[in-house]
Amino acid sequence: MYKIGFYGGSFDPVHLGHIRCIIQAINKCEKLFIVLSYSKQRDFVPYQIRFRVLKQIAKDFDNVEVIAIEDYSKDKNLYNWQDGAQQIKELIKDEINVVFAGSDYKNKKIFEKLYPNAKIEYINRTGKKAVQISSTEIRKNPLKYFEFLPNEMKPYYVKKVLIVGTESCGKSTLIKALANYYNTIFLEEVGRDVCEQAGGVENMIESDFFEIMFKHKSKEYQLEKLANKVLFIDTDSLITAYFGKIITCDNEQRIFNLAKQIYEISKYDVIFYLEPDVIWVQDGTRINIEGNARKKNNEILKTEFYDIMKAKYYSISGNYDERFKTCLKILDKILF
């Protein structure tokens, strides 16, 4: 058992191969430091995300501490190993007894020169028991190698697919079909519940629309952590603002201003805009009617909300089967 050891890397992103190495190192040290080396000029995943993931993993072990050092080199090949080693020694403070490194560094003899008084243990990254993956491979196609990411890392790569449209345009039907097809979960709109609590759309007030937006966004954050590669989302803040407008709610502009701010931070990967060309169905909470009023409200939603926000969306039309197949074709090409 070593007294003080460390295992370092860029962990960009953290994957299960790293976790296996970390566990092996933990079992051999009284105190293990996981050292995250980050460069704001070269990083793919923000270092704050990687640091957070490593901290979540380390919290289950009393003898592990995560520290971070910054690398200022623009080119990884120009990394100053001597400076990095000096930073590590200053942060750890105690004498380092062992350094753990991947077996791909064994012939380079870098750590032997930097830590002459420490034992260098190389962990096999290519053997039968090793996880056959690299950060480089994951960065090229994160969803292909999603299974190699620890659960704490997965939310960063989850893709968000938003489905919007005016009333009775098939959002609920499509989102359930897509979520089941891709073996993942979906976020239902929360407006229906708030509307029912208010006693119907005619009783809704400004605070109801604020509540819908905040609840919906909060649930989105929660479900990102549980989704399998992709999260399907039924409606967003702009839809809520749109309903505020057609219900002729007071302070319509304040509702839109909040909706705009929430939309701008949401960063959806794909937006499907469903055209109202399927049969209109009354579910007990809808305020629209068939015919020209439905088409008019659809234009209001497009031009006064999504177009004004310069949203890039796919217009989806046709019967239910045609819509489903069109969305599959787009998703398989963009996401997978």
Q: Would you identify the CATH H-level superfamily of the largest domain?
A: P-loop containing nucleotide triphosphate hydrolases
**H/E topology pattern:** EHEHEHEHEHHEHEHHEHHEHEH
CATH architecture of the largest domain: 3-Layer(aba) Sandwich
Q: What's the structural domain tally?
A: 2
Chain oligomer state:
single chain
In CATH, the topology of the largest domain is named Rossmann fold
What is the tally of helical segments?
A: 13
Quick one: how many beta strands? 10
Characterise the protein shown here.
- By secondary structure, the chain is an alpha/beta fold.
- The protein folds into 2 domains: 2-140, 3-Layer(aba) Sandwich (Rossmann fold); 158-334, Rossmann fold (3-Layer(aba) Sandwich), CATH 3.40.50.300.
- Helices cover 43% and strands 17% of the residues.
- It has helices at 16-26, 47-58, 81-92, 110-114, 135-140, 154-157, 171-181, 191-198, 206-224, 237-246, 252-266, 292-306, 320-334, and strands at residues 2-9, 29-38, 64-70, 98-102, 119-123, 159-164, 186-187, 230-234, 270-274, 314-316.
- The strands form 2 sheets. A 5-stranded parallel beta sheet has the order 3-2-1-4-5, with helices on both faces.
- Helix 2 links the parallel strand 2 and strand 3.
- The longest helix has 19 residues, at 206-224.
- The protein starts with a strand and ends with a helix.
- 32% of the residues are buried.
